[in-house]
């Protein structure tokens, strides 16, 4: 099975053709429009088998699968102390394994933006995440940890590790958090401003079954988005 995660930087209706050459079984896209509300027929047809969440039809989080793959949305809570966190889309694939699509959002929070949203989601759904595959745009890296904060990137990674969930990139490339040699994001599409903020986390069975991890070509991708797609083959 081949799975891709990519922040398309909006307007997926004009960019989904870029993904066809990868021939992925499942594609997770951040910042994409709602296929059910688009007038773009080619995009609607491409997205025939999908799940999507978002506050407006133009920018949300989607899971797109080949027609022969069953994706069923799971009813996991997104409420932490009466506040909803954004954006998390859990699903079951082929009645076989669970997948959580992530697009960490600021969510107008003065303190718990981005990685803080995932920290909160972990507190309410940790029991669901054993043996799960977690993929997406985390908008976070260890280099932005703050000394007086208990929900830093490092804290989230540690909590995931406690339930047997680790970053596939860091295991595959034998690199440490915060010392990544492969960027996934280029600020303002500037190749001189690289950061690693997109991740694929999974339990030991995903680490052991990972055959290949690659990234989209920088020059091709930066024509479309400020993020690179991550392509994993299991």
Description:
GO terms for molecular function: endonuclease activity. This protein has 234 residues and is of the alpha+beta class. 20% of the residues lie in helices and 31% in strands. The chain has 7 helices and 16 strands. The strands form 4 sheets. It has a 6-stranded mixed beta sheet, with no helix packed on it. Strands 5-8-9-10-14-11 form a 6-stranded mixed beta sheet. A two-stranded antiparallel ribbon has the order 6-7. Helix 3 packs parallel to helix 4. The chain is globular, with a radius of gyration of 17 Å.
Helix/strand layout:
Layout: E1 2-7, H1 17-20, E2 26-32, H2 41-46, E3 50-56, E4 59-65, E5 71-73, E6 79-80, E7 83-84, E8 88-93, E9 97-103, H3 115-125, E10 132-137, H4 153-162, E11 166-167, H5 168-173, E12 185-186, E13 194-195, E14 198-202, H6 204-209, E15 212-215, H7 218-221, E16 230-233
Helix pairs in contact: 3-4
């Amino acid at each position: 099975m081949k799975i891709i995660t990519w922040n398309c930087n909006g307007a997926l209706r004009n960019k989904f053709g870029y993904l066809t050459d990868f021939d992925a079984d499942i594609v997770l896209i951040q910042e994409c429009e709602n296929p059910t509300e688009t007038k773009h027929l080619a995009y609607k047809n491409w997205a025939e088998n999908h799940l999507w969440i978002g506050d407006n039809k133009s920018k949300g989080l989607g899971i797109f699968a080949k027609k022969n793959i069953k994706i069923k949305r799971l009813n996991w809570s997104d409420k932490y102390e009466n506040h909803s966190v954004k954006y998390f889309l859990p699903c079951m694939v082929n009645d076989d394994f669970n997948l959580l699509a992530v697009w960490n959002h600021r969510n107008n929070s003065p303190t718990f933006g981005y990685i803080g949203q995932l920290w909160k989601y972990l507190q309410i759904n940790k029991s669901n995440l054993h043996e799960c595959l977690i993929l997406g745009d985390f908008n976070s890296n260890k280099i932005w940890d703050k000394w007086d904060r208990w929900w830093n990137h490092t804290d989230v990674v540690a909590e995931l590790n406690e339930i047997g969930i680790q970053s596939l990139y860091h295991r595959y490339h034998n690199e440490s958090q915060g010392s990544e040699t492969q960027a996934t994001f280029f600020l303002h599409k500037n190749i001189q401003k690289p950061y690693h903020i997109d991740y694929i986390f999974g339990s030991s069975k995903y680490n052991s079954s990972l055959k290949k991890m690659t990234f989209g070509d920088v020059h091709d991708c930066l024509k479309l988005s400020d993020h690179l797609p991550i392509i994993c083959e299991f």
